[in-house]
Write a structure and sequence with these properties.
The protein is an all-alpha fold. The chain has three helices and no strands.
Length: 77
């Protein structure tokens, strides 16, 4: 993996932000009939996957941000 942990954290945070916007846009469009017609659909499963992807990207960004702080503290001695 090329780049510093700080650069990777920035990339992952930006990617997570893009995925979050997609998930929010998709979740905002409730089908006719409301939540009762939504539960158990393939769309519900797809949106769950989108939200898990957002969580995973956020977690990866947080890990790299923490490692970047550790690198900075090490360099400052």
């Amino acid at each position: 993996m090329a780049g510093s942990h700080a650069e990777r954290a920035d990339e992952l945070a930006a990617q997570a932000n893009r995925e979050l916007k997609k998930a929010l846009d998709s979740s905002a469009d409730i089908p006719d009939g409301g939540w009762a017609n939504y539960a158990g659909t393939g769309r519900e499963a797809a949106e769950r996957v989108m939200w898990e992807r957002v969580r995973a990207l956020q977690a990866q960004a947080q890990i790299h941000a923490t490692l970047a702080l550790n690198d900075t503290a090490y360099l400052r001695g």
